[in-house]
Recover the amino acids of this structure.
């Protein structure tokens, strides 16, 4: 256990350090005189692109292993090092970042920075100690990533109808989760995946504000309004992909502004790389990415009336978007006839592409709703309705003010030296948000009208650009007093967000511990400052390395000791049924790997297929689905034998009475009918575990 943690940590540091090094050298080479914030944003986007550029070829070839990934990452780092120029080193941008933090600490934003820092520490605690607990992560996000790690690449998965569509969604974020799982062969750092991506989004929002002429405080305020909104920060310890979509779209908008101003092809390349990566992450990125890319393509015509330059921009747009985000769409078009599968596009009352059966089943189950449900969604987006969730997932009461002030910014744009870019930015957030509310497709309508809190995160990219426009609009007001009042109001609204995110069961004790930790870090920094002159740097380096390795071992012990306790008692984002946790613990024996077939009630509809927890803490168990079709025991048993299944885990419907036979899937009757082939080894009120007896 401890050796695996240390080896995984070293491999993570080496591989990701090599990619960050290569990305930063490329960013300093192509943007040598650019502000540090924009260069750091470029570094982040390039690092994501490099990780995916390693993952996809290795996964397609079945070579996604620790050794191959490490060799590829180190090779990229070495190539970048050999081709480096004299444009600065890896740590060249650390001073501007330290300067930003010092300036905010000394400003009226110090309280907000302190609150944000405590929330980040609290999120880091959850990410470090808890196993993945979010609903979608336990059902499909982590299941796909874990399966790729187990099998060394892509593999066709047999899934129930209720889950089939998820396997055809864009895969970029699941690929990054798999990249983080690979060094440990488990979820040791899986909950940290979104934290650096959120940092990328914060840097991109800050840089976009600076490009539009905002001062340091205004740019930082815009970043805080976005990144510490419940609709964004609530997902930071999950494996949901919306934070990555938001960060990539803001990076694309940042370099769009630079492309509109300077016309440099390096900026255009980053625009289309950002939109392509976003589209390759989630379908909801298509409207904002399309608008951003369209503006970038048409910009040369407006600026210089040069069709050849616009044609070159169009060619670059198509090439980079296909290369960086087209894999899932091309695959789906070839295999299903629908590039957006399982979703579809609806025009004039007709679906342009065939939707997935699960989409049709959801539409038949819940209906299409009415405009009143859209009004309810909007009301939910601007409130802090807690309901059944442990934390709000909405944008809070600041959303109407952001919309109003961002539209005001477009009207006042004539006062800004960036008037053209500010107007284009308004178009880039307003049109996609409007399209999401006007989309009549069955999948979008169902999510928007029947899961209103969930829908809020789909607007993250638009709201991020809106927040920058809001602060820019405030800066353009003629009245200094009104500017101060609005700035104070936005700070208060951000403070409300911080408080809303703090109302969680573990928050009081964790925030106290985080405060004590900050005090200890401050005291340690003071001692280090005084002793640094007397102690050689190598000693500090060795001490830090020992502390990190010791911390990794301690963390491995805590996660191993308390994993099942946290699965049974903690909540991240959405509550999920805990009826099967004891069964998951029974199957989680790292020294005894199993092949488990999952059987559950209602295979056509429902989000209750918990594949990932059965894989175990070290991904030692292979978890599959053997469909009971045709409905015949002999055929199903033959399917189990072909897959070399050792155990069958049966989930019973916990919403029905214990004596109701309708709660049992068909497979349970077959298991009981063959005591010579299946042995009951564990059971609870809502689950059964059978061991497959091998034929003699």
């Amino acid at each position: 256990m401890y050796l695996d943690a240390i080896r995984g940590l070293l491999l993570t540091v080496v591989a990701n350090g090599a990619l960050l090094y290569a990305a930063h050298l490329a960013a300093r080479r192509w943007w040598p005189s650019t502000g540090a914030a924009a260069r750091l944003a470029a570094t982040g986007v390039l690092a994501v692109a490099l990780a995916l550029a390693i993952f996809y070829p290795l996964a397609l070839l079945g070579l996604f292993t620790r050794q191959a990934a490490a060799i590829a990452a180190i090779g990229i780092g070495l190539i970048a090092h050999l081709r480096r120029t004299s444009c600065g080193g890896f740590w060249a941008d650390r001073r501007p970042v330290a300067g930003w933090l010092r300036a905010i600490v000394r400003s009226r934003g110090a309280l907000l920075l302190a609150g944000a820092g405590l929330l980040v520490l609290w999120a880091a605690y959850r990410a470090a100690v808890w196993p993945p607990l979010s609903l979608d992560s336990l059902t499909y996000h982590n299941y796909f990533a874990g399966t790729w790690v187990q099998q060394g690449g892509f593999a066709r998965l047999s899934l129930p109808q209720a889950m089939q569509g998820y396997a055809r969604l864009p895969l970029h974020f699941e690929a990054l989760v798999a990249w983080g799982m690979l060094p440990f062969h488990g979820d040791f750092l899986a909950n940290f995946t979104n934290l650096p991506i959120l940092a990328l989004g914060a840097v991109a929002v800050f840089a976009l504000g600076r490009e539009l002429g905002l001062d340091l405080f205004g740019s930082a305020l815009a970043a805080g309004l976005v990144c510490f909104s419940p609709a964004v920060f609530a997902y930071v310890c999950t494996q949901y992909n919306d934070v990555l979509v938001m960060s990539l779209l803001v990076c694309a908008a940042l370099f769009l502004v630079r492309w509109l101003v300077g016309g440099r092809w390096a900026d255009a390349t980053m625009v289309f790389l950002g939109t392509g990566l976003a589209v390759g992450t989630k379908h909801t990125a298509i409207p904002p990415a399309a608008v951003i890319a369209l503006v970038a393509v048409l910009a040369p015509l407006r600026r210089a009336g040069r069709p050849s330059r616009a044609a070159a921009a169009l060619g670059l747009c198509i090439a980079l978007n296909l290369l960086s985000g087209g894999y899932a769409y091309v695959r789906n078009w070839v295999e299903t006839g629908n590039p957006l599968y399982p979703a579809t596009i609806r025009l004039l009352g007709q679906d342009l592409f065939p939707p997935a059966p699960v989409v049709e089943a959801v539409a038949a189950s819940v209906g299409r709703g009415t405009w009143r449900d859209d009004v309810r969604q909007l009301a939910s987006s601007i409130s802090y309705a807690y309901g059944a969730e442990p934390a709000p997932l909405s944008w809070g009461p600041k959303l109407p003010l952001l919309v109003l002030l961002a539209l005001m910014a477009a009207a006042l744009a004539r006062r800004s030296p960036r008037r053209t870019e500010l107007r284009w930015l308004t178009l880039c957030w307003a049109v996609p948000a409007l399209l999401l509310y006007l989309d009549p497709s069955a999948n979008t309508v169902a999510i928007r009208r029947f899961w209103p809190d969930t829908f809020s995160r789909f607007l993250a990219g638009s709201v991020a650009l809106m927040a920058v426009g809001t602060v820019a609009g405030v800066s353009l007001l003629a009245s200094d007093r009104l500017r101060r009042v609005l700035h104070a109001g936005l700070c208060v609204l951000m403070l409300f967000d911080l408080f809303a995110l703090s109302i969680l069961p573990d928050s009081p004790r964790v925030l106290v511990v985080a405060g004590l930790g900050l005090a200890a870090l401050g005291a340690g920094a003071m001692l280090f400052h005084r002793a640094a002159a007397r102690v050689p740097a190598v000693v500090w380096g060795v001490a830090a390395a020992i502390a990190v390795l010791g911390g990794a071992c301690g963390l491995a012990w805590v996660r191993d000791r308390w994993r099942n306790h946290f699965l049974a008692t903690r909540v991240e984002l959405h509550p999920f049924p805990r009826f099967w946790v004891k069964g998951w613990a029974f199957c989680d024996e790292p020294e005894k790997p199993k092949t488990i077939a999952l059987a559950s009630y209602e295979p056509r509809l429902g989000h209750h297929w918990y594949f990932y927890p059965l894989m175990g803490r070290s991904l030692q168990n292979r978890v599959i689905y053997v469909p009971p079709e045709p409905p015949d025991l002999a055929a199903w048993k033959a399917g189990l034998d072909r897959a070399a299944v050792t155990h069958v885990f049966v989930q019973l419907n916990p919403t029905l009475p214990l004596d109701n036979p309708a709660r049992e899937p068909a497979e349970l009757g077959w298991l009981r009918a063959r005591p010579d082939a299946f042995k009951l080894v564990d059971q609870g009120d809502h689950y059964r575990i059978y061991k497959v007896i091998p034929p003699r």
Observations:
- The longest helix spans residues 537-569.
- Residues 2-334+369-502 form one domain.
- The mean pLDDT is 87.
- The chain has three domains: 2-334+369-502, 509-569, 581-692.
